[in-house]
Amino acid sequence: MSNLTQSTTLPQQNNQDEMGNEQAGDKTRSQQQIDASSWLPITADRNAKWYYSAFHNVTATVGAGILGLPYAMSQLGWIPGITVISLSWLITFYSFWQLVELHESVPGKRFDRYPELGQHCFGPKLGYWIIMPQQTTVQVASGIVYCVTGGKSLKKVFELLIPAWGDIRTTYFILFFICLQFVISQSPNFNSLKGVSLLAAVMSCGYSLIAFVASTIQGTKHHENMSYGVRSSTTAGQVFDILNGCGTIAFAFAGHSVSLEIQATIPSTPEKPSKYAMWKGVVVAYVIVAFCYVPVAVSGYWAYGHLVEDDVLISLDKPAWLIAAANLMVFLHVIGSYQVFSMPVFDQIEQYLVENRGFTPGRPLRIIARSLYVAAAGFVAMCIPFFGGLLGLFGGLVFSSISFYMPCVMWLITQKPKAFSFHWLTSWVCIVMGVLLAVLSPIGGARTIYMQAKTYRFFS
Fold it and tell me: How high is the pLDDT of residue 457?
């Protein structure tokens, strides 16, 4: 009998030990997540002001995309080009509002990251894998394009001011840009970038103004001899150009991919939710976007017609000092833009390493993880610096989803507006237009890269 009692007791003790170990493991994991949350760049500091969100959003939105708008106009023509830009502004302004509202749509909970909102809408696993790959592609693609933009803009500065240095390969200028990012990427969190982001926002307004004024001045001299038809002479070429132009414009409205992460840095209370401060910053940012985009797109196309370069500042030559200043502003701006788009990627990498792989939070982990990412993105940029094609390819492939229609899909799922109400109709219009853009425009971007690649040598 004693043996039977002993044999019965031992399994009970083992089960209790296993339950105790599981509880201890759960407690350890929970504590680790709390520790990681206070260290990760998105959630470490929640003391941002509303104007932080304004210049973060200006830096994220008014970036490399604005320089390609005159080129997109040359692919679309006057009326279609202006129409697509205006519709894109309206659609993304509306979808931005939806994201701001959805950030705290569940009482007592904040969706600090885009994938977290996706999990709430589509389920823990499906939601993560729907949103995370798209958001990451947007941010990595932006980083690659900004490396290319920074390198080309800096090269233009030296071509204008020190012509003897004009023969240096673009690769070396991109490499210099990457080296700067190795250093700046060690900023611990979003709020620590406020100075960099403010400088970038000011620079974006500066070079937009210069591009508008310089294009207008040069256009008054020779615009009468310009052709304002679309770029390609063949029907197939025109179709591909239209698709690429739409993708380029979509790329110019990419700020949504970091919207929730920016809002996560703003303090929030039940009496004063973060959405009020965030929305104030978004409105200011989008007013600036409108005043930058339309003048640059119209003046650049008016001045150079179908001959405008895929980066309008490359088309400008005189006065040399002014164009050099504009290109230097672009270089400084994309330094900040690169950081704004990369911070969520850093957050994702570090969160995975700490919470899933058991790495200890600290500076060594941050230096190694971020440096490897910067090196990888920079290597791709040096291999394929096709600015115009990259804008069209990435703009249609994933930017249209993140900015144009995915917020509308999530709004319909969570808020369930009444059929044929304003929000129901508007969301469906945005979804249809965004899906068409996502399906069609990458074709044009891929063709542009293919055509440019015919005459390109690696690391040139």
Answer: 56
